[in-house]
């Protein structure tokens, strides 16, 4: 029996029927997705079936060493993962997930392909790897390097997975909650890497696709909650919800838009039980004018709640209260970011901010030239943000994942206590989504 890698699959020549395989009439042999390589090998070994293995053609790698004293929870996480060299580790933002990943790579001592969501994270991983004299390369739209440890984005890895899928014995997915998305999941499927790790601070997805990670990488092997690390390893924190009211004019418009949306739900007998139900209406809006009008009304109502005048007034009070503190303001919409930036003369970071300007703003925030910064979702993930001790959420999706990411921007091992304010509008869906998240 012969096993070979073929463009994201395992080609199997032989007379046996094997699990995870299908007959390929085009090539007259069995075939399986590449990620089944380890399962098929285990089956053949246990069954005593002789075979020739030509699947992996790994990048040559010398000894990998990482001489860093890890914290007890980091050591425990690696120990749990090493039992099977598969699975997902869940650690809060700021708790050293990168060190856990690098230590695991060095323990396995094999070439590793690291997949991250953004180019900023590519740069951060490579900086840490090179700081510790580890052979790091980048495989993105900017560079095409294949080193013993190669870092890529999800987008680049997806494009080149068929070509690279047998070059690395280990694959590591940072911010692994992105992986189950349609498209990105093919990265895991096309790589034959027997050793697989996922890292994240936020394991669950609202669409429940995180359940697929068990098949693609292995299940959750270790998790530690933020509260378990605060005090000793992360700064202590408290949260405070501030409720504000719409003006009469704002509420009139809000009620008008929500009525349009509710009338559509009643006329179509659609029940809104979760975010996935709203996505179905969005899908309908492409060829249903009433659905399009309902979606637009829903978004308009949401923007009124998220950008109310009372929130601006409350923000002014909080900025005055926390003079001398280091503040990050989070909001959902770019127009609100720029409104706050103009009114309070606070530097703004959005997806429209180029890398040079963003790095300059964050550098000046770090050295206390700027006391505060305001951002939309761009700081939620994948950007190295200097320590802050006050967070102000003026709007968000209400998801547990987003909330944890924003809290993680404050919880660093600096020793300073932190506070996270969440300013929500009463008598709107925003208050309900905030309450729902806390029950999750």
UniProtKB/TrEMBL annotation:
Q: Name one Pfam family in it.
A: ResIII
Segments crossing the lipid bilayer: none
SUPFAM superfamilies in the cross-refs:
P-loop containing nucleoside triphosphate hydrolases
**Any coiled-coil ranges, and where?**
none
- Domain Helicase ATP-binding span(s) in chain numbering: 78-221
PROSITE patterns in alphabetical order: HELICASE_ATP_BIND_1, HELICASE_CTER
Describe the reaction catalysed, as an equation. Answer: Couples ATP hydrolysis with the unwinding of duplex DNA by translocating in the 3'-5' direction; ATP + H2O = ADP + phosphate + H(+)
Please state every residue range assigned to the domain named Helicase C-terminal: 311-440
User: EC annotation?
Assistant: 5.6.2.4
Keywords (alphabetical) are:
ATP-binding, Helicase, Hydrolase, Isomerase, Nucleotide-binding
The answer on whether this UniProt entry bears the keyword Nucleotide-binding reads: yes
Family that this chain belongs to: Belongs to the helicase family. RAD25/XPB subfamily.
Name of the protein in question: DNA 3'-5' helicase
Source organism (scientific name): Methanonatronarchaeum thermophilum
Q: What is the lineage of its organism?
A: Archaea, Methanobacteriati, Methanobacteriota, Methanonatronarchaeia, Methanonatronarchaeales
